[in-house]
Design brief:
The complex is a heterodimer. Chain A is built from twelve helices and two strands. Helices cover 30% and strands 34% of the residues of chain B. By secondary structure, chain B is an alpha+beta fold. The chains are: A mainly alpha, B alpha+beta.
């Protein structure tokens, strides 16, 4: 094919972006380690942290540009949109997550020191992409529709944002646990989590979607940042994500080697989260970030499902057939809807709602990886292609 | 679901002598209790979780309407956890979660809960819409307030402020004896959007039910050159809705004039196209091409391209008598690409002297060293070779099972290898088989899906309602003007009822807009 060299270029750029992201991730984690949080929740970096953070941002932006080049080259090589198989989709997910991380988390919310976690998620996603590598090629007739531009890009965009939302939710849970334990140890009057605390009083008077940013002002200020780290178990933090990710990988790919690698990376991330606890933004702010990202992605996901139904009607002759992928995206939708409802339900705000979001993200991962690779259906990539 | 009565709040004046009988709520009370409980948001959440759990089950366990073969394998124990477990799953109708009674019950409960939540909210929303923005008191004590000086008189200043707030889509009203205060409110569509979003689910449900009850789906396989009439008996498989009657079939005739498939250089199919002619009452109405993603809509029915296969035209003769003259539909063989196989029932009226041909076709054969055709990667029928194996005797062809499942007994009597146009003699010349030419068959699905428009409308409303329900925030702003020397002193104040974090910037923007609209004696550069 004449596009052979373009496809090769795309692969090379992918690898370069992959390595650049890893370097950027390391720089961001250094930046995190050199960050200090003052008592009022303001985030400040030390001079060294700022410098290394700048390097990290430069690397991430460069990686993003290279990655974009890879995606464009792939599209040109295949003569279609570059998101028609799992390799390309995983690549696009990483691209979207990094872009959202840089634009929303770093620029808009000013939590640049958290981007390392998002880069780690992008690296993991690209790793799965490498495991599922497919040569640039044409698609089966069923995928050959303008709906692939609409349905798939909406699903992709919302999934990337859900990744960022998950990172924020997980960090919120970590931070909230640390805050509670420290408060409990110092014996301070503490009415529960920061989010819960704000909503213990006139809860029913507050309309749906009420957010508790004001809670920051009347929170007990953390005595020593290191006390938060000491409040958390250094064993559980690498262990739980490591085991969960390793089991998921083992179940879906049946590859013990891959499971060990993925589990180790997740364990490393858990350790990073444990180490970073004192430097994380206050729990209420992380909760807000999680809500904002998920609330943005949810309508997009809703639209993706609807566009998918319209496409299914055109390609397969029925708009909804409870195909495993349809069912999977439906339960992901239901769980995220439950999260949004839980946030405005008495007794569910704060940690419980966050756990719903964690489960919802798990559902998204199952829908994407397990349903595609493990369960046979119309969307399945398990058999052919 | 009887709740135990809560203990009395106030201590009884005199301790009762007799042991208290438990308070058993009557049927009405129980119903009221159940209704109250069903209306709670936490109940709705639990129902949502149950819905999610049901879907998870349906993803992991194969579903009969979707993957019937996997279900059969699970039932027989050939796959999955084994036959005993499968029978338990079957008893719980877990092989058809979405058609099961308990899923129906769950759906009904969800919608009852939704109704219970929505009715009071509609009333409250109507009240909110009717209620004018409330007057503000002690403006200078609110969290956000600012005093501006202007050269305009108070009345004109308020008019200017009114225009500013109107542009920002605030509902406004003049308050006070002399109308000295402007009270404004926005963000009511947060609740309105939420109501639209939730109400749209009734439309989705209605559309789905209508589609299920009055719809029809059928599959048909057509060889090139053949036709079928849109009637129930013509379909290979049909799934009529409960209220779809035999009279609802349209009766038009669809003839497959031509089928064509094209491939990419790596031999994955690029496109497949059926060219069909639709006739009504003997009159040709239209000739159209049906492709994947490009169905043909005719008279309320939609024809979709599903699959295709090879259909060699065979003529089998015994002397002068023609036993078979038709296109035999061959299907792809799982695990062996580019091999098509099928069975031709040649003669089966005499139960003891039946004739059948097992057919295998290689579309682009290379010849192996032993003279046998070898399958190549090329799926195009450029060099087709057909191998026919003749069976004779008591084959059981009359049984109502797929043709391929006939009784092969002692094996084939004779075998012939044919290329298009060739004729071979079988069974010592008593039969001749002619492979006249090679064509295709096309698999079409014919559907009637009413309620689609309703679903589309419902889906649109879900999105239309969702956006304001997530992104609209309620805010109240008051502007008060009082006469001061050289014009008026204008007090602006505001409160946020949601998302207070974002209100700082919004309020600053409103103040800036007011400042721009109110001419001031001091130059604007000094204001900030």
């Amino acid at each position: 094919m004449a596009d052979e060299s373009l496809a090769q270029t795309s692969n090379t750029l992918f690898n370069v972006a992959f390595l650049t992201y890893i370097a950027a991730m390391v720089a961001y984690f250094f930046r995190l380690a050199f960050t200090r949080v003052s008592a009022d929740g303001a985030i400040a970096g030390t001079a060294a942290g700022r410098r290394i953070g700048l390097a990290g941002t430069a690397l991430a932006v460069a990686g993003l540009a290279v990655h974009l080049g890879s995606v464009v080259a792939r599209g040109l090589a295949a003569g279609r949109v570059p998101w028609a198989n799992m390799y390309e989709y995983s690549s696009m997910l990483a691209l979207g997550a990094v872009a959202v991380g840089l634009v929303v988390v770093q620029r808009r919310f000013g939590y640049g020191h958290l981007v390392g976690f998002i880069l780690a998620a992008a690296v993991l996603s690209m790793t799965t992409g490498l495991l599922l590598f497919t040569e640039a090629g044409p698609v089966v007739p069923a995928l050959n529709s303008y709906w692939i531009k609409i349905h798939t890009s909406a699903a992709m965009g919302s999934s990337s944002i859900f990744i960022v939302g998950f990172a924020a939710t997980a960090l919120y849970l970590v931070k909230d646990t640390a805050e509670r334990r420290v408060a409990a140890r110092s014996g301070a009057a503490f009415a529960g989590s920061t989010v819960g605390a704000a909503q213990t009083t006139p809860v029913d008077a507050r309309p749906e979607g009420y957010e508790a940013d004001a809670a920051l002002d009347d929170r007990d200020v953390v005595a020593s940042p290191l006390a938060q780290r000491e409040a958390l178990s250094p064993v559980l933090f690498p262990l739980v994500p490591g085991v969960v990710v390793a089991l998921f990988t083992l179940l879906v790919w049946r590859a013990p080697g891959g499971a060990i690698v993925a589990g180790s990376v997740a364990a490393l991330l858990g350790t990073a989260a444990w180490y970073a606890v004192p430097f994380l933004p206050p729990a209420a702010r992380l909760d807000n970030l999680a809500y904002r990202t998920i609330a943005f992605a949810f309508p997009l996901w809703t639209f993706a499902i609807m566009a998918g139904a319209i496409w299914a009607e055109e390609a397969w002759g029925r708009y909804w057939g409870w195909d495993p992928k349809e069912t999977g995206s439906f339960f992901t939708w239901v769980l995220y809807a439950a999260y949004l409802h839980a946030r405005s339900t008495h007794g569910w705000r704060g940690r419980r709602a966050a756990w719903v979001a964690v489960v919802a993200f798990g559902a998204l991962m199952v829908t994407y990886y397990a349903v595609n690779l493990w369960i046979v259906g119309l969307h399945s990539y398990a058999g052919d292609i | 679901m009887t709740e135990t009565a809560s203990p009395p709040q106030a201590p009884a004046p005199a301790p009762p002598r007799r042991p208290r009988l438990p308070v058993i709520p009557g049927p009405l009370e129980t119903a009221a209790l159940a209704w109250r409980r069903l209306r709670r948001m936490s109940t709705a959440l639990l129902l949502l979780f149950a819905l999610a759990a049901a879907s998870v089950v349906a993803t992991v366990i194969p579903q009969e309407p979707v993957t019937a073969r996997s279900v059969a394998d699970w039932r027989s124990g050939a796959a999955g956890p084994g036959a005993p477990v499968a029978s338990v799953l079957d008893a719980l109708s877990l092989f058809d979660v979405f058609g099961s009674p308990w899923f129906l019950a769950l759906t009904v409960l969800l919608f009852v809960s939704l109704t219970g939540c929505l009715v009071p909210r509609y009333r409250a929303f109507a009240r909110t819409l009717r209620r004018p923005p409330p007057a503000g008191r002690n403006l200078s004590r609110l969290s956000h307030h600012e005093v501006l000086a202007t050269t305009l008189p108070p009345g004109a200043a308020l008019d200017a402020a009114d225009a500013v707030l109107a542009r920002r889509r605030f509902r406004r009203r003049r308050v006070g004896a002399a109308g000295e205060q402007l009270a404004a409110e926005r963000g009511a569509w947060r609740e309105g959007g939420s109501l639209v979003f939730h109400t749209a689910f009734y439309l989705l449900l209605l559309g789905a039910v209508i589609g299920k009850a009055f719809g029809f789906t059928g599959q048909i396989t057509l060889a090139e050159g053949s036709a079928f009439a849109e009637t129930r008996i013509a379909y290979d498989a049909a799934e009529p809705g409960r209220y779809w009657g035999l009279d609802d079939h349209r009766g038009f005739v669809v003839a497959l004039d031509d089928f064509d498939v094209s491939y990419f250089p790596n031999f994955t199919p690029r496109d497949f196209v059926s060219t069909v002619t639709v006739s009504e009452q003997g009159q040709q109405v239209r000739t159209e091409r049906i492709r994947v993603n490009h169905p043909l809509r005719h008279d309320g029915m939609t024809l979709y391209q599903l699959g295709f296969g090879m259909a060699p035209h065979l003529i089998v003769r015994a002397g002068e008598q023609v036993l078979l003259d038709e296109r035999v539909l061959l299907t792809p063989q799982e695990g062996t690409p580019n091999l098509w196989a099928g069975t031709a029932k040649v003669k089966f009226d005499d139960l003891r002297r039946q004739l059948a041909l097992d057919l295998a076709l290689v579309p682009n054969a290379a010849l192996g060293a032993d003279g046998q055709p070898v399958i190549t990667a090329d799926p195009r029928p450029t060099n087709p070779v057909l191998v026919g194996s003749l069976y004779f005797g008591e084959l059981g062809l009359q049984r109502p099972v797929p043709a391929a499942e006939f009784d092969r007994g002692d094996g084939p009597v004779d075998t012939a290898m044919l290329r298009p146009g060739a004729t071979a003699e079988l069974a010592k010349g008593s039969l001749t088989v002619e492979f006249a030419d090679l064509g295709y068959w096309s698999g079409l699905q014919v559907s009637h899906a009413p309620g689609r428009e309703l679903l589309l409308l419902g889906g649109g409303l879900v999105l239309v309602g969702l956006l304001p329900s997530l992104y609209s925030y309620r805010r109240r702003v008051w502007v008060q003007a009082r006469a001061a020397d050289g014009g008026a002193a204008v007090t602006v104040a505001g409160v946020a009822l949601h998302r207070k974090a974002a209100f700082d910037d919004e309020f600053a923007a409103i103040v800036a807009a007011l400042r721009a609209a109110l001419p001031s004696a001091t130059p604007p550069t000094q204001e900030r």
